[in-house]
Batch of 4 targets.
Target 1
Amino acid sequence: DWQRLIGELHSPNKHRRTRAQHALAHLLKDSGGRPVENGVPLNQEPLIVETLTGLLKDSLANPSEDEDKIGNEEFLARTLSSLDADDKVLPVLAEAVDAKHNIEVRKSALMAVAMISGRHFEQRTAFEATSNGSLELATALPKGVPLPEQTISDEALLQQLIASSQDPDPVVRHLAVFCFGNVSGETGIHQLKLALGDGDEKVRANAITGLARNGSADGIAELIALLESANDKFDPATSGGTTPEEVEQKRQEFLVERTKMISNLLRATADLWPAISESDRARLTEVLKSIAEANFDQHVRSVASLLLKQIESA
């Protein structure tokens, strides 16, 4: 089946190509690490790797604002995250992240880098990116982090990540900073510390959580400041929406993004607790009480309450 799908990726029929792309993406996601008939895992299969990287590379070499072409590049960039072939994949993603390309393509490429570097980080550490909400107050900082070597070795991609972390678009910046939390090593930690001074709160939040993932308490002051604003309400006047429909969309985005951000910061609080001073612990305890009582999201309130109980019984 995968060989047929590879063939259809070159079909002149747009609908056939699209179906093949989606089918192959699902196949890689569901069974990418399992060997195919020649004993090679599907996500390392040379024909798949060469075809997908080649398609994106060729498309990027001929820039266009055609919506279908851009959508195809976004899809290809995201699909590359499923491949286990860094030597082929990372140079193409480095090109896709470049500021000369469409911003949505760049974002998709950064998401792919985040997933690839995240897999490498988890393989080298005991860190688990997902949690079931049952956070445990750490009794010691994790060992073995920051990693002695970066999880991403492609120099061109590292330079593009550094440039992206200074991009005018805050979404590009916070995606790049998120990547650095998974990149680790000297470069990753340095860039995370720089990002603590960013003017966008989501960028700062990703810097804090990235440092916490690497056992660094350098973002404690910024962590407390962001958690102190955790209960801030959505403000329609400053949302940027010009119609009731747009304002409502902005409100929904605010709720989703802020809930995720605060949840990540609560995890960072639990992970960094052994490194937090007594005075900062006292401040955080008061902040957690406020979040547990008044935050708009039930899950956030629940996690804050759980942390408070653990703090009180520690």
Target 2
Amino acid sequence: FNYLVHFKRLPTPDFCKENEITEEDLQRNEAGTVTMPLTEALRQKLERMPDFCDKPVKAPSFDQWLFPLDMAKKWSTSDYGPLWIPKRGATIKLTLANLPIYERCIAVYEGNRLEVNGGKILINGHAVDSYTFKMDYYWMMGDNRDNSADSRFWGFVPEDHIVGKPLMVWISLDKDYGLFDGKIRWNRFFKWVADIK
């Protein structure tokens, strides 16, 4: 989880390396205060260092920005859904309750005029109670669940927005190490994506 940490003096590079804190982890908010992910062990360690920093406080979540913005659901970044992902040719029952989830697909990506009038859903001027999708959609997840901007925030990704397919990892570098200190991840060097586990 992310925490707000007010440092009385900023961590040294040695402290950061010892505790696996990267420069990217230290998101500065104001003088001396950073937002950073902490393991439970590191949080407890920092709590025992009152001369170094104030007690870490859990950072506010961004749950109010989750897709769909106007849902009355109590979803969070770590407890999201359930959610059905649209696919080409699939038909769903369309209701006022699920419309916020699918309205961007229907109106923006598939080019329909969508409106609600008198409690009825209208697509291109016709009252409807179902919809058949014209495209496949994808749900994109970042590789850092608690710190990723992904489909939980921007919703479904239509097939026509996907412009390529990864085939091979040419080189994989670890930004936290020097060139001769483990920077190159040899186990991922020149590997076919399908072979990476």
Target 3
Amino acid sequence: MTSNLQLLTALDTPPTLAGSRSVLRALRAGDAPALQRHADDEAVRGNLFEGFPGPYTLADAQAWCGYRLEATMPQSAIKDGRVIDRVVYARYRQDIAA
């Protein structure tokens, strides 16, 4: 039996999941301006982890869009057809069985 971690490691490109009103897909370089705009909002930043950069610059967003903690940890953007709505961040851990 193949573990979930092995399956995730095997993916070169994260899958795109399309629903009737939104799409979950990997972040792209072109998402950086919208990500910067939303992440620089004080109301958004106040609900994020301590140490989140503020102001959140375009360089921060560009770095995040290309960032991977490991090859097994892609970031995803949820789009409603116009701009990024949320960024989903997950850290896969070997010590937690799915």
Target 4
Amino acid sequence: MGIAYRMPASLIEWLYRILSVVLLMTAPVFGRITYTLSFEDRAEHYVTVDLEVDGLRGREYQDFRMAVWTPGSYLIREFSRNVVDLTARGAIRELPVTKVNKNTWRVELNRQRRIFIRYKVYAFQPDHRASFVDDDGAMINGANVFVYPDGMESQESLVVINKPRSWGQVTSALPWVGGRSPVFRAASYDVLVDSPIMMGNHTVLDFEVSGVSHRYAISGEGNYDPDRLLTDTGKIIQEIHDIFGSVPYQDYTIFLQLRDKRCGGLEHLNSTHLITSRWTFSSEETYQRYLRLVAHEVFHAYNGKRIRPESLGPFDYDRENYTPLLWMVEGFTSYYDRLLLRRADLLMVEDYLDQLAGSIKELESTPGRHRQTLQQASFDAWIKHYRPDENSPGTTISYYTKGSLVALALDLTIRAATDGGRGLDDVFRLLWQDYLATRGNYSYENFRAACDSVARRPLDDVFQYVTTTAEMDWQPVLEPFGLMLVRGYISPGDTARAYYGFRTREEDGRLVITRIDHDTPATRAGLSVHDELISIDNYRLLGASAERILASRSQDKAATLVVNRDGIMSTFTIRPTPPPYDMVSIVKVEPPTEQQERLYTGWLQVPWE
């Protein structure tokens, strides 16, 4: 199990572990792989990697590759750009090394069966998908540090940590073997890159859920309350375990880096790596967002890391791994990250419904929903989701947002179809049991069949929102629960506001268009992103008054707009229209029927009040 590196309590246990390391390091195992990490150049943010590979037979050369992406983050990140000074040697002399492509080094073996590779990796990106090294410690994410011998991805490897004396401890999700220097074992390259390592003088907080060891490894100063953090995190994880009925790991580590402003998280097999502001815990709103992040990433231990689509494991680290099912991996997890807080009594019902309404508004404010399906958004994540530009809102959707709304619709539709007897939990339990029986990945057809089976009827009315751009109809979804969707305006006076269809940002005192929605007054007038707005109807558009002046123009009446486009002044005629709604809420219908009240209570686990 992954634990903080500490002296074992028993001398006998300590000697046993030393002996096991010696045996592992000397046994003539075919293809034995050992990585040693050291940090002599930590002030310059380098980690030095010494890689020993033994048991190479019957080949002229051996290729070594660096992953180009990391699982859970669907973007080619070109990690090899940070590798420097790669050399190779045999027992006596250096071996020739040739770079054969962007992430592959070829070593001529010259009949050597045991070779040593040394290289350095620049690691100074405080990000949950990257690695970071400085004088105070290190956070290692394997995909961007460990090159691997091509063809040996399924082989076991050891990781030896040579840390500075000033770094008090090492924590990893990898099983600890022992030794004077910490030594960890990875069952395969997949496991190696899926198991972060934290080094330094971080805080380790141990807690237990479902009889299983969990821990926080917290790097950085922050204003968190340890007791509250462990209690609330434990409640969330218990809710997750209760859904599936068993625990998928022997222990679990939450690596938490507290920094000034950054926020994000990445799931791993038996751990998660989170980054959040050190001041996150100062308000209920920001603390609740953090707990949602915890719920999201821990839920991935089931949905994504074990229950996973075809093509997402075993991974090809050389190129994109395409799937049309990220809406299920990420979107359904996003649905549960809020619902878990509600079940753990960490989120009030009113706030929960407001957040669901906010997601509906977000989707309905995205013109791209008319152009891109959920399946397309998932497949194109590699080139679109992580690379947004000014054209993205009109052509793409978030598979997180719409996926979470499809999960909501599916959960409520199943509950209504079975009179509250079943729900989305039962779908996940079915998928989990199938995984435990087969250890296989699922297809879209498998997932559809599981949902239809739980609902005891075909769910075409919901799955059309996955395969087409049909507008989501919330009335039949919410009505059985005594709820309805209301669209309107935050302020009654907003209905008289002029609407143009563009969004702006002030840049060095200039009012610049940053987004234009499809089929709006702005597109009909011929405006473009990057146009600087100068005046409208001879009124100068500057500073705080600009928004007020634009909003005051008459609806459906032509206005004259002067813009600066690439240094040339141009005049356009624009006819603003009434604005689209800016508020969505989910409200109760009074009085509820007996069935509505029962379904509502079963879903939200609170009585109708």
